[in-house]
Design a protein that fits this description.
11 strands; Rossmann fold; 2 domains; 281 residues
Length: 281
Amino acid sequence: MEASRRAMMGGVLALGAAKPALHAPQRIASLNSCLDAMLVHLADRAQIAALSHYAREPEGSTVAAQARTLPFTWESAEEIIALRPDLVLASQHSALATRNALKRLQVPVERFAVPKTVDESLGQVRRVARLIGRVDRGEVLVARIQAALAAATPRPGARRLSALIYQPNGFAAGPHTLVDEVMTRAGFDNAARRYGLKTWGNVPLEQVLADPPEVLLVGEASSGARSWADRVMTHPALGAVRDRMKQARFSERLLYCGGPVLIDTAAAMALARAQVLGDLT
């Protein structure tokens, strides 16, 4: 921990970054990987006091390369307070002890819920942009996200495909989740509904085999490591449905966040659909 703290405190921010907008916070810390991504896309480098340690993990972060050049914390109150931030971005799941300590010391903290819709996610982009004094950049990013989603939307009347996102332990995205809306926009009908999921949950392999979707969307670890989901894909029982259920793969880190991540998620969904339709013709 001490070594990590020294590394975090010793992180060097690039010189020559644009001067922050008047009255904009100049020392911003993020405690959440999804907020990390928004901060990297929207803030001046000199404004970022620290990202969360999750930002450096390529399995779950889409800004790992940038994050490795920036300071980070392990989310402890001691680390955050030492940074003397004038704004902290936190999620509803950020450490309660840290949030309480920051509140007692009157450190400004803005909390964000997990967005369940595209509109909620775009609203968060605009909120972060406003908080850090980068409203124009927020609108540019919103326009890029909207364009990516539009590009991934099939033409009217195009064939739709039933699909299931399948993660380790059979973890799947049901209705009332952000990724469900992205799937729908990209031309997929989420089979999780017919399996009874109300939001995120587990779908047993037996249920998939009994009523297979047309497409199994399998998230791959960026490290190339074999996951439980990958092992399931080689189960002998799948031979019985191979002619009815195709597989498409993409980076699992595209399932975790909204905001700028939606640009790549939409593109990955559109590519998966095109590949499956090519296999079916």
